[in-house]
Design a protein that fits this description.
Elements lengths: L15 H22 L18 E6 L5 H12 L3 E5 L2 H4 L8 H9 L4 E6 L4 H7 L5 E6 L5 H14 L8 E5 L6 H10 L5 E5 L8 H9 L4 E4 L11 E4 L10 H5 L9 H5 L6 E3 L20 H19 L1
Parallel strand pairs: 1-2, 1-3, 3-4, 5-6, 5-8, 6-7, 8-9
Helix pairs in contact: 1-11, 2-11, 4-5, 6-7, 6-11
The chain binds N-carbamoyl-L-aspartate (NCD).
């Protein structure tokens, strides 16, 4: 697949070859980060920090974010580019005056070289991109997709299992209905021969389109409400918070809170070589004592995400 100049709107855009090419680039970026953050990398990173010299990225965030926006911005800065940051676009931009995303895209195309955008509406990023002559990267469109989080998640799996993803049993636990992170990760994992176990309350099951697509690829999918009975088989455990902001009322979300909690006791039931992932923020689904468990990878994911976004931006811009 071609990266240069492309919009990155959904995970479906990637094929396996594209993913593997990206992973190679991510490795290079990890070297760059060693060079920038530690004392020395023996000169390996020489030159990379100028890759985006003279380029400007705008981040347009219409929804809250800690990791994703700072990660995009850090990635761009670490490659020598400059950043304009829109952190509260619903209130501070002309969205407040009912400007369309199409017009916002037309406008920003006159100003900057690339946009990373987050918005609560599924498909919003496509509307912005339809007005853009510069690449747009989806940083989360409502409950629909979050392709760069999916990329950093599959990279985390690939890295931890040393490239051997085939044969893994992938558990995803929590609010499968609204987790754009889980939706995007499934799109990437379908290129490998894996089995899925989706654990969620009945009302928060994985959307049928996602399940059907995986089954269509001849991949085994088990959907259950039972974590204790299935955790012991999982090689990868992706947990997600209840996406409170996607419910009609706080009470509705509250009903599901505390249903699947990963504490030291629960982790005793997990495989010794499993990895525990979470896109963060965590609310109550992982207790902090688990942070010291070597299987906990959720803060490593943040580090991987920086290298992944550096690689992607270097390839796209
Ligand atoms: C996720 C998101 O925004 O979808 N967070 C992230 O990008 N790291 C997950 C979440 O908010 O629960």
């Amino acid at each position: 697949m071609e990266f240069k100049g492309q919009h990155i709107l959904t995970a479906e855009q990637f094929d396996k070859k594209g993913l593997l090419a990206l992973f190679e680039k991510v490795r290079e970026m990890e070297e760059v980060l060693v060079g920038q953050r530690a004392v020395s990398d023996g000169g390996k990173s020489k030159g990379f920090e100028k890759t985006l010299d003279g380029k400007i990225m705008a981040t347009l965030f219409y929804e809250p974010s800690t990791r994703t926006r700072f990660s995009f911005e850090t990635a761009f800065l670490r490659l020598g580019g400059k950043v304009i940051s829109g952190a509260d676009m619903m209130n501070t931009s002309s969205a407040k005056k009912k400007e369309t995303l199409y017009d916002t895209g037309k406008t920003l195309s006159q100003l900057v070289d690339v946009i990373a955008m987050r918005h609560p509406e599924p498909g919003s990023v496509d509307e912005l991109a339809s007005g853009c002559s510069i690449p747009v990267i989806n940083a989360g469109d409502g409950p629909h997709q979050h392709p760069t989080q999916g990329l950093l998640d599959i990279y985390t799996i690939w890295k931890n299992f040393e490239g051997k993803i085939d044969g893994l049993k992938i558990g995803m636990v929590g609010d499968m209905k609204h987790s754009r992170v889980a939706h995007s990760l499934c799109e990437f994992l379908k290129y490998w021969n894996v089995e899925f176990v989706f654990v969620s309350p009945e009302e928060l099951k994985m959307p049928e389109v996602v399940v059907e697509e995986l089954k269509g690829e001849d991949l085994k999918v088990l959907e259950t409400t039972d974590l204790e009975g299935t955790i012991g088989e999982m090689d990868v455990i992706l947990t997600t918070r209840i996406q409170e902001e996607r419910f009609s009322s706080a009470d509705e979300a509250e009903k599901h809170r505390g249903m699947y909690v990963f504490d030291s006791e629960m982790m005793e039931k997990a495989k010794a070589d499993a990895i525990l992932m979470n896109p963060l923020p965590r609310v109550d689904e992982i207790t902090t004592d688990v942070d010291y468990d070597p299987r906990a990878k959720y803060f490593d994911q943040v580090g991987n995400g920086l290298a992944v976004r550096m690689a992607l931006l270097a390839m796209v811009v």
